[in-house]
Amino acid sequence: MSFITTILNIGIHTEIGETEQKVRKLFNAITFFGCIAGLLQVFIFIFVDKYAVLFHATWTVFCVIALLLHHYGYYQLAKITSVYIILSFGSLASARIGSEYYPHIASFGIVVGTFIFFDLKKEWGYIVAFLLLHAGFIVLIESNILQNETILIAYPVALRSTIIVGTAIFIALEVYFIIQVTAEAQLEKNKKLRVKNMVLQEREEEKTVLLQELHHRVKNNLQMVVSLIQLQKENIADAEIHQLFNELKERIIAMARMHEMMYVSQKIHKVDIKNYIEELTTTLISSSENQHPVELKVHSQVKYVSAREVVPIALILNELITNSIKHAFTAKNNLIEVNIDPLDDHRIAFYYSDNGTWKDPSEENSGFGLELIQLLTEQMDGFFKRENLEAGTRYEFVFNLSSKVSDK
Asked: Which residue, 133, 153, 173, sits at the end of a domain?
Protein backbone atom coordinates (compact mmCIF):
# COMPACT_ATOMS: atom_id res chain seq x y z
CA MET A 1 0.00 0.00 0.00
CA SER A 2 2.88 2.39 0.74
CA PHE A 3 4.21 1.90 -2.82
CA ILE A 4 0.80 2.68 -4.35
CA THR A 5 0.45 5.71 -2.06
CA THR A 6 3.86 6.95 -3.20
CA ILE A 7 2.83 6.61 -6.86
CA LEU A 8 -0.46 8.40 -6.30
CA ASN A 9 1.25 11.28 -4.44
CA ILE A 10 3.79 12.04 -7.17
CA GLY A 11 3.77 15.80 -7.77
CA ILE A 12 1.24 16.45 -4.98
CA HIS A 13 1.98 19.25 -2.50
CA THR A 14 0.03 21.22 0.07
CA GLU A 15 -0.36 24.34 -2.09
CA ILE A 16 -2.60 22.44 -4.53
CA GLY A 17 -6.36 22.53 -3.85
CA GLU A 18 -8.17 19.40 -2.72
CA THR A 19 -10.04 18.94 -6.02
CA GLU A 20 -6.87 19.44 -8.07
CA GLN A 21 -5.08 16.89 -5.90
CA LYS A 22 -7.71 14.25 -6.73
CA VAL A 23 -7.39 14.96 -10.45
CA ARG A 24 -3.61 14.67 -10.27
CA LYS A 25 -3.84 11.42 -8.34
CA LEU A 26 -6.10 10.01 -11.06
CA PHE A 27 -3.54 11.14 -13.63
CA ASN A 28 -0.77 9.32 -11.73
CA ALA A 29 -2.91 6.17 -11.43
CA ILE A 30 -3.77 6.04 -15.15
CA THR A 31 -0.20 6.82 -16.23
CA PHE A 32 1.23 4.18 -13.91
CA PHE A 33 -1.36 1.69 -15.18
CA GLY A 34 -0.11 2.59 -18.67
CA CYS A 35 3.42 1.62 -17.61
CA ILE A 36 2.29 -1.82 -16.37
CA ALA A 37 0.09 -2.42 -19.42
CA GLY A 38 2.94 -1.44 -21.77
CA LEU A 39 5.43 -3.79 -20.07
CA LEU A 40 2.92 -6.63 -20.18
CA GLN A 41 2.46 -6.14 -23.93
CA VAL A 42 6.25 -6.14 -24.43
CA PHE A 43 6.55 -9.57 -22.80
CA ILE A 44 3.58 -10.94 -24.74
CA PHE A 45 4.91 -9.91 -28.18
CA ILE A 46 8.68 -10.04 -27.59
CA PHE A 47 8.99 -13.11 -29.84
CA VAL A 48 6.06 -12.30 -32.08
CA ASP A 49 6.56 -8.85 -33.65
CA LYS A 50 9.39 -6.40 -33.10
CA TYR A 51 7.30 -3.37 -34.07
CA ALA A 52 4.59 -4.24 -31.58
CA VAL A 53 7.32 -4.55 -28.92
CA LEU A 54 8.87 -1.22 -30.01
CA PHE A 55 5.55 0.63 -29.86
CA HIS A 56 4.65 -0.77 -26.45
CA ALA A 57 8.15 -0.17 -25.07
CA THR A 58 8.11 3.47 -26.26
CA TRP A 59 4.67 3.86 -24.72
CA THR A 60 6.01 2.52 -21.39
CA VAL A 61 9.10 4.76 -21.40
CA PHE A 62 7.06 7.90 -22.02
CA CYS A 63 4.65 6.97 -19.23
CA VAL A 64 7.64 6.87 -16.87
CA ILE A 65 8.86 10.21 -18.28
CA ALA A 66 5.41 11.73 -17.66
CA LEU A 67 5.51 10.66 -14.01
CA LEU A 68 9.01 12.12 -13.65
CA LEU A 69 7.90 15.41 -15.21
CA HIS A 70 5.00 15.55 -12.77
CA HIS A 71 7.36 14.82 -9.87
CA TYR A 72 9.59 17.77 -10.82
CA GLY A 73 6.67 20.17 -11.17
CA TYR A 74 6.03 20.12 -14.92
CA TYR A 75 2.44 18.91 -14.71
CA GLN A 76 1.27 20.55 -17.96
CA LEU A 77 4.06 18.89 -19.92
CA ALA A 78 3.40 15.63 -18.09
CA LYS A 79 -0.27 15.69 -19.15
CA ILE A 80 0.63 16.27 -22.80
CA THR A 81 3.29 13.55 -22.73
CA SER A 82 1.13 10.91 -21.07
CA VAL A 83 -2.14 11.47 -22.94
CA TYR A 84 -0.69 11.98 -26.43
CA ILE A 85 1.97 9.27 -26.17
CA ILE A 86 -0.40 6.62 -24.81
CA LEU A 87 -2.84 7.43 -27.60
CA SER A 88 -0.20 7.55 -30.34
CA PHE A 89 1.88 4.47 -29.59
CA GLY A 90 -1.10 2.51 -28.26
CA SER A 91 -2.89 3.14 -31.55
CA LEU A 92 0.23 2.23 -33.57
CA ALA A 93 0.51 -1.04 -31.63
CA SER A 94 -3.18 -1.69 -32.26
CA ALA A 95 -2.72 -0.99 -35.97
CA ARG A 96 0.22 -3.44 -36.04
CA ILE A 97 -1.40 -6.28 -34.13
CA GLY A 98 -4.98 -5.86 -35.37
CA SER A 99 -8.12 -4.20 -34.13
CA GLU A 100 -9.40 -7.53 -32.75
CA TYR A 101 -6.69 -7.53 -30.11
CA TYR A 102 -6.56 -3.86 -29.24
CA PRO A 103 -9.76 -2.21 -30.54
CA HIS A 104 -9.86 1.57 -30.71
CA ILE A 105 -12.82 1.49 -28.34
CA ALA A 106 -10.26 1.00 -25.56
CA SER A 107 -8.80 4.45 -26.16
CA PHE A 108 -12.15 6.05 -25.34
CA GLY A 109 -11.10 5.80 -21.70
CA ILE A 110 -8.21 8.10 -22.48
CA VAL A 111 -10.61 10.47 -24.25
CA VAL A 112 -12.75 10.72 -21.14
CA GLY A 113 -9.64 11.14 -19.01
CA THR A 114 -8.51 14.00 -21.24
CA PHE A 115 -11.56 16.03 -20.25
CA ILE A 116 -10.55 15.55 -16.62
CA PHE A 117 -6.88 16.39 -17.03
CA PHE A 118 -7.35 19.49 -19.22
CA ASP A 119 -9.31 22.61 -18.32
CA LEU A 120 -11.95 22.91 -21.05
CA LYS A 121 -12.18 26.72 -20.63
CA LYS A 122 -8.45 27.42 -20.78
CA GLU A 123 -6.93 24.42 -22.60
CA TRP A 124 -9.60 23.55 -25.19
CA GLY A 125 -6.96 23.63 -27.94
CA TYR A 126 -5.24 20.54 -26.49
CA ILE A 127 -8.55 18.69 -26.36
CA VAL A 128 -9.48 19.55 -29.95
CA ALA A 129 -6.03 18.46 -31.18
CA PHE A 130 -6.35 15.24 -29.18
CA LEU A 131 -9.77 14.40 -30.65
CA LEU A 132 -8.54 15.06 -34.20
CA LEU A 133 -5.49 12.86 -33.59
CA HIS A 134 -7.73 10.18 -32.13
CA ALA A 135 -9.97 10.25 -35.21
CA GLY A 136 -6.91 9.86 -37.47
CA PHE A 137 -5.69 6.82 -35.56
CA ILE A 138 -9.13 5.20 -35.76
CA VAL A 139 -8.90 5.42 -39.55
CA LEU A 140 -5.35 4.00 -39.43
CA ILE A 141 -6.40 1.05 -37.24
CA GLU A 142 -9.46 0.16 -39.32
CA SER A 143 -7.54 0.42 -42.63
CA ASN A 144 -5.19 -2.46 -41.62
CA ILE A 145 -2.29 -0.74 -43.45
CA LEU A 146 0.23 -1.51 -40.68
CA GLN A 147 -1.20 -4.85 -39.62
CA ASN A 148 1.12 -7.87 -39.48
CA GLU A 149 -1.10 -10.58 -40.93
CA THR A 150 1.13 -13.34 -39.56
CA ILE A 151 -0.11 -12.52 -36.06
CA LEU A 152 -3.06 -14.76 -35.34
CA ILE A 153 -5.42 -14.10 -32.46
CA ALA A 154 -7.16 -17.04 -30.82
CA TYR A 155 -10.83 -16.35 -29.99
CA PRO A 156 -10.79 -12.80 -31.43
CA VAL A 157 -14.50 -12.19 -30.76
CA ALA A 158 -14.23 -13.17 -27.10
CA LEU A 159 -11.07 -11.10 -26.69
CA ARG A 160 -12.63 -8.07 -28.36
CA SER A 161 -15.76 -8.38 -26.21
CA THR A 162 -13.67 -8.64 -23.05
CA ILE A 163 -11.70 -5.52 -23.94
CA ILE A 164 -14.90 -3.60 -24.74
CA VAL A 165 -16.47 -4.59 -21.39
CA GLY A 166 -13.29 -3.68 -19.52
CA THR A 167 -13.13 -0.34 -21.30
CA ALA A 168 -16.79 0.35 -20.50
CA ILE A 169 -16.12 -0.32 -16.81
CA PHE A 170 -13.06 1.92 -16.93
CA ILE A 171 -15.04 4.75 -18.55
CA ALA A 172 -17.86 4.31 -16.02
CA LEU A 173 -15.37 4.69 -13.18
CA GLU A 174 -13.94 7.83 -14.78
CA VAL A 175 -17.41 9.31 -15.30
CA TYR A 176 -18.25 8.54 -11.66
CA PHE A 177 -15.02 10.25 -10.64
CA ILE A 178 -15.90 13.31 -12.75
CA ILE A 179 -19.32 13.60 -11.11
CA GLN A 180 -17.87 13.12 -7.63
CA VAL A 181 -15.04 15.61 -8.13
CA THR A 182 -17.42 18.17 -9.67
CA ALA A 183 -19.86 17.83 -6.78
CA GLU A 184 -17.07 18.10 -4.20
CA ALA A 185 -15.59 21.10 -6.00
CA GLN A 186 -18.98 22.83 -5.92
CA LEU A 187 -19.39 22.04 -2.22
CA GLU A 188 -15.90 23.37 -1.53
CA LYS A 189 -16.67 26.51 -3.54
CA ASN A 190 -19.96 27.01 -1.68
CA LYS A 191 -18.17 26.53 1.63
CA LYS A 192 -15.58 29.16 0.74
CA LEU A 193 -18.33 31.54 -0.38
CA ARG A 194 -20.19 31.04 2.91
CA VAL A 195 -17.04 31.73 4.89
CA LYS A 196 -16.29 34.79 2.74
CA ASN A 197 -19.85 36.06 3.16
CA MET A 198 -19.64 35.59 6.92
CA VAL A 199 -16.40 37.58 7.04
CA LEU A 200 -17.90 40.32 4.87
CA GLN A 201 -21.03 40.37 7.01
CA GLU A 202 -18.98 40.67 10.20
CA ARG A 203 -16.97 43.52 8.68
CA GLU A 204 -20.16 45.23 7.52
CA GLU A 205 -21.70 44.89 10.97
CA GLU A 206 -18.53 46.24 12.57
CA LYS A 207 -18.50 49.16 10.13
CA THR A 208 -22.17 49.85 10.85
CA VAL A 209 -21.59 49.88 14.60
CA LEU A 210 -18.60 52.22 14.24
CA LEU A 211 -20.51 54.63 12.00
CA GLN A 212 -23.51 54.56 14.32
CA GLU A 213 -21.22 55.33 17.24
CA LEU A 214 -19.68 58.17 15.25
CA HIS A 215 -23.10 59.69 14.50
CA HIS A 216 -24.07 59.22 18.16
CA ARG A 217 -21.00 61.07 19.38
CA VAL A 218 -21.44 63.89 16.86
CA LYS A 219 -25.07 64.25 17.93
CA ASN A 220 -24.03 64.36 21.61
CA ASN A 221 -21.37 66.95 20.89
CA LEU A 222 -23.83 69.11 18.98
CA GLN A 223 -26.33 68.82 21.82
CA MET A 224 -23.62 69.93 24.21
CA VAL A 225 -23.01 72.97 22.01
CA VAL A 226 -26.76 73.66 22.08
CA SER A 227 -26.70 73.47 25.88
CA LEU A 228 -23.77 75.89 26.04
CA ILE A 229 -25.59 78.30 23.75
CA GLN A 230 -28.70 78.01 25.91
CA LEU A 231 -26.69 78.78 29.07
CA GLN A 232 -24.99 81.73 27.42
CA LYS A 233 -28.29 83.02 26.08
CA GLU A 234 -29.76 83.24 29.58
CA ASN A 235 -27.12 85.80 30.50
CA ILE A 236 -27.94 88.08 27.58
CA ALA A 237 -30.49 90.85 28.05
CA ASP A 238 -30.43 92.28 24.51
CA ALA A 239 -33.49 90.92 22.67
CA GLU A 240 -31.85 91.07 19.22
CA ILE A 241 -28.77 89.12 20.30
CA HIS A 242 -31.05 86.76 22.19
CA GLN A 243 -32.87 86.09 18.91
CA LEU A 244 -29.60 85.50 17.06
CA PHE A 245 -28.60 82.88 19.65
CA ASN A 246 -31.99 81.19 19.17
CA GLU A 247 -31.48 81.01 15.41
CA LEU A 248 -27.97 79.60 15.86
CA LYS A 249 -29.30 77.00 18.27
CA GLU A 250 -31.99 75.93 15.80
CA ARG A 251 -29.41 75.47 13.02
CA ILE A 252 -27.31 73.24 15.25
CA ILE A 253 -30.40 71.28 16.33
CA ALA A 254 -31.17 70.65 12.63
CA MET A 255 -27.74 69.05 12.18
CA ALA A 256 -27.95 67.12 15.46
CA ARG A 257 -31.33 65.72 14.47
CA MET A 258 -29.84 64.42 11.22
CA HIS A 259 -27.06 62.58 13.09
CA GLU A 260 -29.62 61.15 15.51
CA MET A 261 -31.64 59.75 12.60
CA MET A 262 -28.47 58.26 11.11
CA TYR A 263 -27.69 56.65 14.45
CA VAL A 264 -31.03 54.82 14.71
CA SER A 265 -31.42 54.13 10.99
CA GLN A 266 -30.78 50.82 9.24
CA LYS A 267 -29.15 52.75 6.38
CA ILE A 268 -26.45 54.72 8.15
CA HIS A 269 -24.97 56.23 4.99
CA LYS A 270 -28.16 57.98 3.87
CA VAL A 271 -31.24 59.64 5.33
CA ASP A 272 -34.92 59.10 4.63
CA ILE A 273 -35.50 62.65 3.47
CA LYS A 274 -39.30 62.68 3.87
CA ASN A 275 -39.17 61.47 7.48
CA TYR A 276 -36.35 63.89 8.24
CA ILE A 277 -38.27 66.88 6.91
CA GLU A 278 -41.37 65.89 8.88
CA GLU A 279 -39.45 65.41 12.13
CA LEU A 280 -37.37 68.57 11.70
CA THR A 281 -40.47 70.67 10.96
CA THR A 282 -42.30 69.20 13.97
CA THR A 283 -39.32 70.04 16.19
CA LEU A 284 -39.09 73.61 14.89
CA ILE A 285 -42.83 74.22 15.22
CA SER A 286 -42.97 72.84 18.75
CA SER A 287 -39.98 74.93 19.87
CA SER A 288 -41.25 78.11 18.23
CA GLU A 289 -42.74 80.95 20.26
CA ASN A 290 -45.35 81.42 17.54
CA GLN A 291 -48.48 79.61 18.69
CA HIS A 292 -50.29 79.64 15.34
CA PRO A 293 -51.04 76.06 14.17
CA VAL A 294 -49.08 74.90 11.10
CA GLU A 295 -50.02 72.09 8.73
CA LEU A 296 -47.21 70.29 6.94
CA LYS A 297 -47.46 68.40 3.64
CA VAL A 298 -44.40 66.56 2.33
CA HIS A 299 -44.34 64.76 -1.03
CA SER A 300 -41.11 63.14 -2.18
CA GLN A 301 -40.30 60.83 -5.07
CA VAL A 302 -36.75 60.65 -3.71
CA LYS A 303 -36.50 58.22 -0.83
CA TYR A 304 -32.96 58.78 0.43
CA VAL A 305 -30.34 61.52 0.35
CA SER A 306 -26.73 60.83 1.29
CA ALA A 307 -25.43 61.94 4.68
CA ARG A 308 -22.99 64.30 2.98
CA GLU A 309 -25.73 66.26 1.19
CA VAL A 310 -28.52 66.19 3.74
CA VAL A 311 -26.76 68.77 5.98
CA PRO A 312 -26.92 71.74 3.54
CA ILE A 313 -30.50 70.75 2.61
CA ALA A 314 -31.37 70.59 6.32
CA LEU A 315 -29.90 74.03 6.99
CA ILE A 316 -31.72 75.53 4.01
CA LEU A 317 -34.96 73.93 5.18
CA ASN A 318 -34.34 75.18 8.71
CA GLU A 319 -34.03 78.76 7.43
CA LEU A 320 -37.17 78.51 5.31
CA ILE A 321 -39.33 76.88 8.01
CA THR A 322 -38.08 79.27 10.69
CA ASN A 323 -38.79 82.29 8.50
CA SER A 324 -42.23 80.95 7.58
CA ILE A 325 -43.18 80.44 11.20
CA LYS A 326 -41.73 83.71 12.51
CA HIS A 327 -42.16 86.12 9.62
CA ALA A 328 -44.93 84.82 7.33
CA PHE A 329 -47.64 83.22 9.42
CA THR A 330 -49.95 85.59 11.22
CA ALA A 331 -53.26 83.76 11.07
CA LYS A 332 -54.84 80.36 11.34
CA ASN A 333 -54.83 77.63 8.65
CA ASN A 334 -51.11 78.02 8.02
CA LEU A 335 -49.64 75.56 5.50
CA ILE A 336 -46.10 74.49 4.59
CA GLU A 337 -45.68 72.24 1.58
CA VAL A 338 -42.47 70.53 0.45
CA ASN A 339 -42.07 68.59 -2.80
CA ILE A 340 -38.95 66.73 -3.93
CA ASP A 341 -38.72 65.33 -7.47
CA PRO A 342 -35.80 63.66 -9.27
CA LEU A 343 -34.68 65.41 -12.46
CA ASP A 344 -32.07 62.82 -13.48
CA ASP A 345 -29.59 60.47 -11.81
CA HIS A 346 -27.74 63.28 -10.01
CA ARG A 347 -30.17 66.20 -9.82
CA ILE A 348 -33.25 66.85 -7.75
CA ALA A 349 -35.83 69.65 -7.71
CA PHE A 350 -36.73 70.88 -4.23
CA TYR A 351 -39.90 72.96 -3.91
CA TYR A 352 -40.85 74.81 -0.74
CA SER A 353 -43.99 76.88 -0.39
CA ASP A 354 -46.20 78.37 2.31
CA ASN A 355 -49.43 80.32 2.33
CA GLY A 356 -48.09 83.16 4.48
CA THR A 357 -47.03 86.68 3.62
CA TRP A 358 -43.25 87.19 3.82
CA LYS A 359 -41.76 90.50 4.76
CA ASP A 360 -38.66 91.94 3.18
CA PRO A 361 -35.40 90.80 4.85
CA SER A 362 -34.49 94.38 5.75
CA GLU A 363 -37.66 94.81 7.74
CA GLU A 364 -36.89 91.89 10.00
CA ASN A 365 -33.12 92.00 9.75
CA SER A 366 -33.13 88.47 8.35
CA GLY A 367 -30.63 89.07 5.54
CA PHE A 368 -28.17 86.56 6.99
CA GLY A 369 -30.69 83.72 6.56
CA LEU A 370 -31.13 84.41 2.84
CA GLU A 371 -27.36 84.77 2.39
CA LEU A 372 -26.91 81.42 4.09
CA ILE A 373 -29.48 79.83 1.74
CA GLN A 374 -27.62 81.29 -1.25
CA LEU A 375 -24.26 80.02 0.05
CA LEU A 376 -25.54 76.49 0.77
CA THR A 377 -27.24 76.27 -2.63
CA GLU A 378 -24.01 77.24 -4.38
CA GLN A 379 -22.18 74.66 -2.26
CA MET A 380 -24.37 72.00 -3.88
CA ASP A 381 -23.73 73.43 -7.39
CA GLY A 382 -27.37 74.44 -7.56
CA PHE A 383 -29.57 77.48 -7.95
CA PHE A 384 -32.90 78.73 -6.68
CA LYS A 385 -35.58 81.27 -7.39
CA ARG A 386 -38.28 82.82 -5.26
CA GLU A 387 -41.81 83.59 -6.37
CA ASN A 388 -44.38 85.69 -4.53
CA LEU A 389 -47.78 84.19 -5.31
CA GLU A 390 -51.27 85.23 -4.38
CA ALA A 391 -51.52 82.15 -2.17
CA GLY A 392 -48.14 82.68 -0.52
CA THR A 393 -44.46 82.32 -1.28
CA ARG A 394 -42.68 79.59 -3.26
CA TYR A 395 -39.02 78.64 -3.46
CA GLU A 396 -37.74 76.38 -6.22
CA PHE A 397 -34.28 74.81 -5.83
CA VAL A 398 -32.27 72.59 -8.12
CA PHE A 399 -29.52 70.62 -6.37
CA ASN A 400 -26.68 68.60 -7.94
CA LEU A 401 -25.94 65.50 -5.88
CA SER A 402 -22.56 63.79 -5.90
CA SER A 403 -24.23 60.43 -5.27
CA LYS A 404 -26.89 58.84 -7.44
CA VAL A 405 -30.52 59.73 -6.67
CA SER A 406 -31.94 56.80 -4.69
CA ASP A 407 -35.46 55.57 -4.11
CA LYS A 408 -34.33 52.36 -2.37
From this structure: 153
